[in-house]
Amino acid sequence: MKVEIWSDIMCPFCYIGKKNFEKAIQEISFKDQIEIEWKSFQLDPTLNSSETMTTNEYFKHKKGVSVEQAKQMTAQVAVMGKASGIDFNFENALITNTYKAHQLLHLAKKYSKSNEAKEELFKAHFIEGKNVGNFNVLTEIAQSVGISEIDIQNCLQNDEFENDIQKDIKQAKDKRISGVPFFILDGKYGISGAQPAEFFVNALTQTYKESEIYEENTGTLTCSDDESCSI
């Protein structure tokens, strides 16, 4: 059973959703029959890849939110993160263009290391305060999950996987996905937001039971809205 997940590195709800989904996977008996495919989605492709700003600066300049309001918002997300096992460090998180990070994720697919690369990118951005648009940082992350230095350098220097990234983004538009994380289970059901693990368990179980009955997917898309990041 295939699960497609659209997300962006700079989305805290995507990290929470990943943790909750992984917890759900461990609670089901058919976990070995689930294939996860990470899909690219950029919340703000207009950001300069050679510049960074703090979370508070981003909310102020891009969203028109005061520093105090930004702190209140991130504090609420931090509480959610704690419940999912994440210690968000919003004070040091560096906002930048995530395009190169998505290049790394597509390269990681060739190594069957997508999930590991995704985790390390989230950790670098939200916990370690690293610039996930930086060439050296991405090279370090790639090597940490077993990707060769030569492959990651060729990938980043030659704009490799541009077509794959744009294909993911177009698919999101075609499916009217405007916020992430967004999960599509077996091509049938859509789940929006950082849902609790119990919700994912129920959704996966329902979809799995149906996949044993129906050979063709219905193309039906249902959506349960919750916490997510939107463009």
From TrEMBL:
Gene3D superfamilies: Glutaredoxin
UniProt xrefs under CDD domains: DsbA_FrnE
Keyword Isomerase applies: yes
InterPro entries xref list: DSBA-like_thioredoxin_dom (IPR001853), Thioredoxin-like_sf (IPR036249)
Keyword Isomerase: yes
Domain (DSBA-like thioredoxin) ranges: 3-204
Gene Ontology terms for molecular function: isomerase activity
This protein's UniProt keywords: Isomerase
Pfam family, one: DSBA
Domain of life: Bacteria
Protein name listed in UniProt: Predicted dithiol-disulfide isomerase, DsbA family
Organism: Chryseobacterium taihuense
